[in-house]
Amino acid sequence: MINGVINVYKEPGYTSHDVVAKLRGILKQKKIGHMGTLDPNAVGVLPVCLGKATKLCNLLSEKDKTYTATMLLGTETDTQDTTGQITNQTPEEEVMKLSEEKVFDVIKSYIGEYDQIPPMFSAIKINGQKLYNLARKGEEIERPPRHCKIIDITITKIDLPRVSFHVTCSKGTYVRTLCYDIGKDLGVGACMEKLTRTRVERFDIKDSISLSQIEEIRDQGVLEQYITPVDEILDMYSKCMVSEEAEKLLYNGNIFTSRNTLLKMNHQDGQTVRVYTHDGKFIGLYMYIAEKQIYKPIKIFL
């Protein structure tokens, strides 16, 4: 079984689940999961966890993400992007009256934290039902706002009625809803025309590979070169190695004490560390409890 994370370039027309299903066939293993859904018409970085790395899915889904987007001013749709049915349209001459300065100021005003009402066409569940299933029946229900953070927006081009920008945002942010909200503030409405995810954590679009490329490198026998090991993903945590005599504690999922480490470690109370055997085999994440001088398992990757 392959363990680690692969940086997949999701092509248009595929859902994130489609990518996982195809990878199961290509790699001949079932234990695969993705980190952060991309809409079918969006493209770009989709980190996929393989084998033991599937335990990382929730952790990495929490990370900030960067996108390149094109917003179409003057058009609103039921999906908040150009794949949906038009629900409202502002005459183009009204859109063209907008000044670049106003467009710039309104977009930049979104940098920071704000409460975003998720779109009906989304996979969010309310009362056990996915919103997009209700939306397809023509139903619309009240959605509680979700707190999100726009870390940065850089406008790259204003060519009305289109505006292109880069945005880095927190987990759970819908870029198409951001476009919709900006359009409302500008008084002309808007929807998202294009979306490319360019980065998730350390995974950059320039290093991503398509499904067909994955098949090729699998056949060439060099797939391992494109897999990021589990412990590398967790390299923000300090490394701790346990003596050979105490390794049975690790394999049984038990705590161990600071006396069992190979080197004197200066860890702080509550600190999370990566734990390895004496010969460098990664075991998992542990938390140091200073009062008892013990390391308690959090997540084991054996």
Kindly describe this structure:
Belongs to the pseudouridine synthase TruB family. Type 1 subfamily. Responsible for synthesis of pseudouridine from uracil-55 in the psi GC loop of transfer RNAs. It is an enzyme of class 5 (isomerase). Keywords: Isomerase, tRNA processing. It catalyses: uridine(55) in tRNA = pseudouridine(55) in tRNA. The chain is of the alpha+beta class and 302 residues long. It has three domains: 4-62 and 202-230, 2-Layer Sandwich (Pseudouridine synthase); 65-197, 2-Layer Sandwich (Pseudouridine synthase); 234-300, Roll (Archaeosine Trna-guanine Transglycosylase, Chain: A, domain 4). It contains nine helices and 19 strands. It has helices at residues 16-27, 57-61, 92-95, 100-108, 131-136, 175-186, 211-220, 230-233, 247-251; strands spanning 4-10, 32-34, 43-50, 65-73, 75-77, 86-89, 112-116, 125-126, 129-130, 146-159, 162-169, 190-200, 203-204, 227-228, 238-241, 256-257, 272-276, 282-289, 294-300. Strands 1, 2, 3, 4, 7, 10, 11, 12, 13 and 14 form a ten-stranded mixed sheet that branches. The protein has a five-stranded mixed sheet with strand order 15-17-18-19-16. Strand 5 and strand 6 form a beta hairpin. Helix 1 (16-27) packs parallel to helix 7 (211-220). It is elongated, with a radius of gyration of 23 Å. The model has no long low-confidence stretch (mean pLDDT 91).
